[in-house]
Amino acid sequence: MINPKDHLYRLTTHFRWAMAVLGLFIASFLIYLWTENQVDLAHESRLQSFKLAQELRQSSDDLTRMVRTYIVTGNPLYKQHFQEILAIRDGKIPRPVNYDSIYWDLVLSDDHRPNPAGEATSLLGRMRAAGFTKEEFDKLAEAKANSDTLTHTEFAAMALVESEPMSDQKRSQAILMVHDAAYHDAKAGIMRPISEFTTLVDQRTIKVIDDAEQKTVLMRSTFILLGVTLGWLIWSIQRNVRTILGGTVSEVHDHISRLGRGDFSTPITTKKGMSNSVIALLAETQSKLHYIDTQRQLAEQATKESEERFNLAITGANDGLWDRNLAQNTVYYSPRWKSMLGYEDHELANTYATWAGQVHPEDIDTILEKIDHCLTHKIDRFQHEYRIRQKNGQYIWVLDRGMIMRDENQTATRLVGIQTDISEQKYVERMKNEFISTVSHELRTPLTSIHGSLHLLDGGVMGELPFKAHDMVKVAIKNSQRLINLVNEILDMEKLMSNMMIFQKDEIDITTIVRQTMFNNISYATSFGVRYAMAPKQEKCMVIGDADRLSQVVTNLLTNAAKFSKPGDTVNIRIIPTNEFARIEIEDHGDGIPLAFRSKLFGEFAQANSSNTRQQGGAGLGLNIAKKMIAKMGGDIGYITEIGVGTTFWFTMPLASTTVVV
Question: Would you say 357 and 367 are in contact if contact means Cβ atoms under 8 Å apart?
């Protein structure tokens, strides 16, 4: 039986060693390349040294050949070449390309040059730049100086054959000047230092090359040793991984893929001694999933039977049932639905006009917009509260909960739902709101005064506070501000419930409002380690609404997204214009909304986790206020959530006539 902890520790240790050896392996390879380069540089330096010596020797020989040819032939072209050789060597005129190779031997009587001209550089200057030792440089400098001295004799010989009157005796004398023993001694004075220079350079560069090659051999050996060590570590890592997995990666992948496809019935076999491996855990998981899947099938069967019982029981329930067949354009209202309004079954016709004529005029448009939104966006379930007129002329509050049924093409065919009388609940809520309003008005004035006084204390109006007292004042300021915000939210609720809140209907750029609100709340998001992100090139989008109220709604959604996001997360903001509405989406990557809380999400004082919400701030009124404000401005609000993935809150606003949707 394997011990996963031992193998995991060994795998981690070997992996760390492998990373270290890999680093050394790369470093040794780079050093090895550097040592190889040093060998190449040493060879190149040796070659360049010999080239400079050869060029000096070649130029001396070329000068001798040119002066002798000129004396014999009298052709001024050779004197010109003689002078040009000296000028090139002294850097007075450009040096031909590849001049250190054969050059003047290829310049014939037509004076055609085999190579183009390059830069003007003196031979002595290049000698200085070559990095020779002083002794080596002195040898070349001596040879150069002796060659320059010899040119005096050569110029004298050329001058002799040019003097008038010209005679065979003068020509013979000039020829002798460049062929006698003194001339050959002078040539030897040039070649001897060059030979000594060659010996010195040869000894020095051979040593440099030997040293560099020894380092190269050392680094090559080190590189090979590290490579072998790295190979062994990789083999060991692979062996440990296989032991931990209980098989090959391919086998693990196959098992996971089978589970991912929902195949829980095929058992996973575990090899002997691998009871604690990943494959063993997958086998255990497969067994549990198989059990869960069996239970799910049983639950589905039980659900089906329960639904059948529900259909039987709904007939006797106290809720009204309605059914609208879109394909056949027919409507059905149960007797209880009609009696809820005070009518007998035969007194109301089963038509759409019956329902539309009973709904309060202020509610009908909002209901139809919500249903149309669900139809358009493939939303199958909906619910809304509205007022409906009874036979005696009074209105009662009802809750409609409906479901949209679709065919195989996802086309809506029927709307089915139940209607519940919630008038008593609304009455209780109104009494609660009146009580809350009274309390809020009584709290607001003293709270504002307390908050202001605390700010004065914090600002040092009463003198410098002790350190502990200063911290307590900070806490008091923060908590008093939370109370003020709560009171303000309660007052907003009161205004909305009593229809006292005034909403402007202006053409406004929702993009500007969202962007400014995002900037205003950046510091709040930062306190949770969260950032907001909005497309920098978000198009301008004009809507009809109240700028201040929209900013309040966006602030609520942004702060909620920040509170319930994980540190380091990004809250994404999008504005999507459609044919009639602008859709604003605020997406977080938190834990998602618990299933049990979703039905109460837009209710008053709604909190998914009271203790957690208390720590993060808020009393659960913001979403309720936002929903009412959006509804007052002709829009809708909702959310899409997935546990463990996050939540996207959205709301819509009517587009202005100036907005063009592309």
Answer: no
Q: Which residues of 646-661 are buried (b: 16+ CB within 10 A; e: fewer)?
A: bbbbbbbbbbbeebee
Taking the C-alpha atoms of residue 64 and residue 191, their distance in angstroms, rounded to an integer, is: 13
d(CA 552, CA 520): 11
Q: Which of 56, 71, 93 is nearest to 154 (CA)?
A: 71
Please tell me whether the overall predicted TM-score, pTM, comes out greater than 0.70 for this model. Answer: no
Phi, psi of 572 (to 5 degrees): -95, 135
Helix orientation angle between 181-245 and 4-73, rounded to the nearest 10 degrees: 160
On whether the CB atoms of residues 123 and 55 are closer than 8 A, the answer is: yes
Sheet of strand 581-587: strand arrangement:
531-534, 570-577, 581-587, 646-654, 637-642
Q: Where does residue 355 rank: exposed (0-12), middle (13-18), buried (19+ CB within 10 A)? A: buried
Contact 148, 155 (CB under 8 A): no
DSSP, residue by residue, 74-91: --HHHHHHHHHHHHHHTT
pLDDT higher at 339 or 444: 339
Pairing relationship of beta strands 581-587 and 412-421 according to DSSP bridges: unpaired
**Six token digits for residue 345:** 């079954």
In this predicted structure, what is the pLDDT of residue 162?
Answer: 86
Nearest to 561 by CA among 477, 641, 661, 634: 641
CA distance 600 to 613: 15
**3 state SS of 650:** strand
Amino acid at position 141, single letter = A
* Summary mean pLDDT of the chain: 83
* pLDDT confidence of residue 615: 46
